[in-house]
Amino acid sequence: MRLLTPRSAGPSRLPVRPPSPVRRRTARAALAALAAVLVGLTPTATATAAPESATATADGFASVSALGQNGTTGGAGGPVVTAATTAQFLDYISRPGPLTVQVSGTITLPTGSTDGMHPVASDKTIVGLGGSARITGGGLHIGLPVSDSVTSPPANAVHNIIIRNLRFDGASDDLINIQMFSHHIWIDHNDFSNGDDGAVDIKRGSDYVTVSWNRFHDHDKTLLLGHDDDNGAQDRGRLRVTYHHNYFDASDQRNPRVRFGDPVHVYNNYYRDNSYGVASAMDAGVVLEGNYFFSVNNPARVDFSGDLGRLVARDNILVDCNHAIETRGSVTEPRTYYAYTPHRAAEVPTVVPAGAGAGKI
Questions:
Q1: What angle do CA 79, 83, 89 make, to 5 degrees?
Q2: What is the pLDDT of residues 156-203, one digit of tens each?
Q3: Which of 72, 113, 162, 164 is least surrounded by CB atoms within 10 angstroms?
Q4: Which among 263, 165, 247, 163 is positioned nearest to 208, based on CA atoms?
């Protein structure tokens, strides 16, 4: 079929040539640069569609609608940028508004006057590209500056952050620190090792957090939940965290060490060669479910330091462990807050190492 094009009026009847490939490429580049300026990005980091790894849905406590936040969506709805340098990375994670930051290659964070901890603003997704994206030398700080006088969530609390598919190592302090009533945080499919202090510390009234499918190795003090026996004014009724499908691969202790949090849901994690797994203290309430402990001196304790904690245990497997799981009291069921379907504990040694860590989403 032949399409007829009406002729324009007037004496000139010169043929209209389609734009050349060079002109088309130049026009597209100009439009891309203009779009980059309009959204405040550099021309080398223009907005693109979010990858599947950045659009996955949070589960556990991070999925709960609370504190004015309907689950954890991170940078959804905002631009997508790629950070390949330290300067780009620190710029993007500190910007206001939703933004998905893709990390390419290795980002070395400076120590300077911050002790290597660098702030992340609300409404961010930080996701590694491929299986080798790495944050080293410093850590990420999620939360307002410390203030003991603040005892309820402030309106400007940092919130709605997703961190996935990254390798964290060599921090001069914590690898990730979450504090001061920060809420709706999802830490998923990362690899943590060789931090100077904590791997993922959650404290000072932070709430609605999920730590899932991560591998912790070559690290001592892994997961601190609640930093001090005297901090009940900020922590009681908060610190609700889900830890599931993590691989504690000879990470020595604090897997996690819990104060005040209630409930804290620890399920389907694989523990291998640790001094202790879970400690519940200061009336914290832990549900320990479907975990597999291999060669762990103390799988779980409620008599640890400070006041006793509470712990309910079901369907856990202990192999070559020196002590039994200590239980005490009752704990609010996690299903009060969210639905979940756990694996059987016997499946955990196969399922978790195969799926936990960076490069596996």
A1: 95
A2: 999 999 999 999 999 999 999 999 999 999 999 999 999 999 999 999
A3: 113
A4: 263
pLDDT per position as a tens digit, 239-260: 999 999 999 999 999 999 999 9
290 neighbors 315 (Cβ within 8 angstroms): yes
Model pTM greater than 0.90? no
Q: Is 17 a catalytic residue?
A: no
Mean pLDDT of the chain: 89
Cα–Cα distance measured from residue 327 to residue 310, given in angstroms and rounded to the nearest whole number: 7
- pLDDT above 70: residue 297: yes
Selecting among 254, 257, 259, 310, the annotated active-site residue is: 254
Q: 219: number of CA atoms within 13 Å, CB side? A: 32
Sheet strands (E) in 302-352: 310-314, 317-319
- In sequence order, which ranges of 39-97 are alpha helices (DSSP H)? 86-93
Count how many residues are written for the chain.
Answer: 361
Nearest partner of 57 among 72, 45, 70, judged by Cα: 72
CB 313 within 8 A of CB 300: yes
% residues pLDDT > 90 (the chain): 82
